[in-house]
Specification:
By secondary structure, the chain is an alpha/beta fold. It is built from 19 helices and ten strands. Bound molecules: fe (iii) ion.
Length: 423
């Protein structure tokens, strides 16, 4: 079974990554940043976690306001470094852990948390700034991450209480994962700072110290505070401190503080803490009961004939192909696809099998492979056939045979106006 080896809290200011890239280790102004991370490096070396559950927020880099969510769980196989305006930092991509992420998604959903899922998105300084200083990566990262992006930028944002409760549910989720994984929970962000408006430059070191003290001893009190109270005490951007409550919620009621440093060089305090469990955590249900409960919603669906739920497993496996087909909503991509799909297959990095399935329009095999039906109907529209043709093909019937099973015979497609449909 997976175990939680402890929790890390860390600021995620871009200064940290900048200090590393600019090799400021021996500059007295910058040296305290590195000193603060040394115990974290040491602890990670000793504990050797296989996975870091990495709680951070994106800074309008990979997550935009066309679709903004509260808790976005990274379910993908790999995460690259994002370009935030001047080219991405020279860091290798870090592996994800789709198996653990899937399990956490199932467990948290059963506990009534509404998650979003993401993959194929690069991560910005919220993740890679602290990660690059705490984990060695010259010869590749020593383990994987499961990122959780918390939407703290567009109000209303999740409450502190919600974050704390999510941490509690997260602990149970991780500890019920059947593989022997060592998992550390890393929370990033804060502490008190504000970067916008006339209040830009606001800091509050006494509040930071009080926050750290309460986080260690009485986190429930921090869970009671409103976002406005966080903003008043710690600056509006400092309200991202609520993300630390997810980490704290995943640890035992009493924790052992192994390390804590605080350095306020410019706009944002650079803080690191390490906690380990220091009291037992009572479970309200046995492992077996818990497993049955979290699997309940989809239990039995696998035995339905000819049915392929679009699970995270299928989504991750067929992500490249689904993304390719999704581009068919763009007129220019459609035009190029119809003219000659081969260069597009190449550019998208599709496998030989994936290319073959699309070339042969093997609708049934595409579904079995992991393409969602609603992309098949787009492909059908582009190549000029109707939904009914696709339904018939998936059943292994001719159009006429399938039409005989319908009350009336009608043909339609999502092609929109001006579509030339084959009869
Ligand atoms: Fe931030």
């Amino acid at each position: 079974m997976a175990t939680i080896v402890g929790g890390i809290g860390s600021s995620h200011t871009p200064t940290i990554g900048f200090a590393l890239d600019a090799r400021k280790q021996s500059d007295p102004v910058w040296a305290p940043i590195f000193a603060g991370f040394e115990p974290v490096q040491r602890w990670l070396r000793e504990k050797q976690p296989d996975v870091l559950f990495f709680i951070y927020n994106d800074h309008v880099t990979s997550f935009f306001f066309d679709h903004y969510s509260h808790f976005a769980l990274g379910v993908g196989e790999e995460y690259a470094v994002a370009d935030e305006g001047g080219g991405p930092r020279q860091l290798p991509p870090v592996k994800g852990h789709p198996g653990l992420a899937r399990h956490i998604a199932t467990a948290l959903t059963a506990d009534d948390f509404d998650l979003a899922y993401f993959q194929g998105k690069p991560l910005d300084h919220g993740c890679f700034s602290p990660l690059s200083v705490m984990w060695p990566h010259e010869a590749g990262w020593p383990g994987a991450i499961v990122p959780l992006q918390v939407g703290v930028l567009e109000f209303p944002i999740p409450t502190a209480r919600r974050c704390f409760r999510l941490g509690r549910a997260l602990r149970r989720a991780i500890e019920s994962y059947p593989e022997n994984l060592r998992v550390a929970i890393v929370a990033t962000g804060g502490l008190a700072h504000q970067v916008h408006g006339e209040r830009a430059g606001f800091n509050n070191t006494p509040w930071d110290k009080e926050f750290l003290d309460l986080l260690e001893r009485e986190p429930e009190r921090l869970a009671e505070l409103t976002i406005a109270q966080y903003a008043e005490r710690g600056g509006l951007e400092g309200a991202e401190m609520i993300m630390w409550l997810i980490m704290r919620g995943a640890l035992s009621a009493r924790v052992k503080k192994l390390h804590s440093t605080y350095y306020l060089p410019s706009m944002t305090p650079i803080v690191t803490v390490i906690y380990e469990d220091d009291s037992p955590v009572a479970a309200h249900e046995t492992d077996a009961e818990y497993r049955v409960r979290i699997e309940r919603e989809l239990a039995g669906v696998e035995s339905l004939p000819g049915t392929y739920p679009f699970t995270l497993e299928r989504s991750v496996k067929a992500y490249r192909l689904n993304r390719f087909l999704h581009q068919l909503i763009e007129p220019e991509f459609r035009r190029r696809f119809l003219a000659d799909p081969e260069p597009l297959f190449e550019a998208a990095g599709l496998t030989a099998q994936e290319r073959d399935l699309v070339r042969r329009r093997d609708w049934r095999a595409l579904i079995r492979y992991g393409v969602i039906f609603f992309l098949l109907e787009k492909l059908a529209a582009v190549v000029g056939i109707t939904n009914l043709h696709v339904y018939a093909a998936m059943r292994g019937e001719t159009l006429e045979e399938f039409q005989r099973t319908r009350n009336v015979q009608m043909l339609y497609s999502v092609a929109g106006q001006g579509a030339q449909l084959k009869q």
